[in-house]
Amino acid sequence: MKTALQVSAVLLLCSGGALPAQDTRTVSEPRIPNVCVKLDARLKAPLEDADESKLDTDRIQKAMDGCKPHEAVELASGDGKNAFLTGPLELRPGVTLLIDKGATLFGSRDPKVYELESGSCGIITSDSKKGCKPLITANQASGSGIMGDGVIDGRGGAKMLGKSESWWGLGHDKKDEGGNQQVPRMIQTEKSDDFTLYRITLKNSPNFHVSYSHGDGFTVWGVKIDTPENASNTDGIDPGGSKNITITQTYIRDGDDNIAIKGGNGPATNMTIVHNHFYYGHGMSIGSETNAGVSKILVKDLSLDGTTAGIRIKSNPTRGGLVEDIRYDDICIRNSKNPIQLDTSYFLPGKEQNALPVYQNILLHNVRITGGRTISLLGYDHTHRITITFDGVLILDNPTSYKFGARHADIILGPGPVNFQMTGEDSRSGGKPGGGSLPSCADKFVPFPTD
């Protein structure tokens, strides 16, 4: 497998001079490192109840602890065995976890192995204090990564050991009863520069699939995320408080944001999101935490097929800040209720409102929409506005069937074609949109890859 994957090819992140890549790095296809330890599977999927005590955690962790930087621990199938079972793992600096095609790393269903303190995981709490370790952590583990054509399966829909419901069941309880679900994320990084996810498939996370925080340099290439639509709080990829990020050639369907860029625990900047496909989920999001700022984001060549929202920036005055220099180019949106949704009062709680959102220098270029319902640009007040340019934005079915809402927004139209008008409270439109058509989306909507 290593030979097949060791291809180094520079990706053309964007074309033309008008939309330069926002990631300041020169990004090329990742390479699989040399293998220092190969571990063979001892279990066979689907796992039986008797397998739940046969954890591979210690031998995987020991192997990673013993590898040097630029080396990998390989998880391999063979002799009819194709499954590994683990509790929380910690990546080491420069060390890659490599999962072969045909092999699956399953997360344990036992809340006890994830506990940060006794009884803290697999419950609903009244406070926001974290109660569970992630399945895989990279903490100050620069140069590490997860690669391979195998699968990581968090088993979020399977019943927890010793409980009457699944991890996702807690998410539904949270919606019904309030409180905070204490469930593990799949991959959580902190202060880990140059982190890489390459070709891996992530499935059924109990909570967020990937959270990347306080890092400089994050590459996601050829990754698939595949989780049911009704699995609450299962964001796909959430870069937060970080810079120099490229996400490319991914296929994402989940129960929450497909991607959500967050600027709550530090500024989020210099990101390139290019050549990706989203299916069900909540769309290409920024927020809702934007109080430390989000800037210099390029989203290009993206299809959104059946997401609840398409292009989405969300915040509110308890967690808002400046969102600027955001560029969307060559976007195809189909069957999304809210194909364009910019909201500054998203889930507004009754708290002190001292972090007011402002969205400015937002550009939509060559955006095509069909099967939508509502397009909204909702600024906060006369001072804290939305400033946006529609340069080639077309509704391809019937614009008169859509609802349009604008508030405290400055809208520039053109020079590309725009076939609808945005009007509303304290909102102004200017510019001269052109006529004509935009490139077809016919080849943009591709089936989710299942192999």
UniProtKB/TrEMBL annotation:
It comes from the Bacteria. PROSITE patterns: POLYGALACTURONASE. Residues 1-20 form the signal peptide. GO terms for biological process: carbohydrate metabolic process. It holds the Pfam family Glyco_hydro_28. GO terms for molecular function: polygalacturonase activity. The keyword Signal applies. Keywords: Glycosidase, Hydrolase, Signal. Residues 422-451 are annotated as: Disordered. Belongs to the glycosyl hydrolase 28 family. This is Type III effector polygalacturonase Pgl. It comes from Granulicella rosea. The lineage of its organism: Bacteria, Pseudomonadati, Acidobacteriota, Terriglobia, Terriglobales.
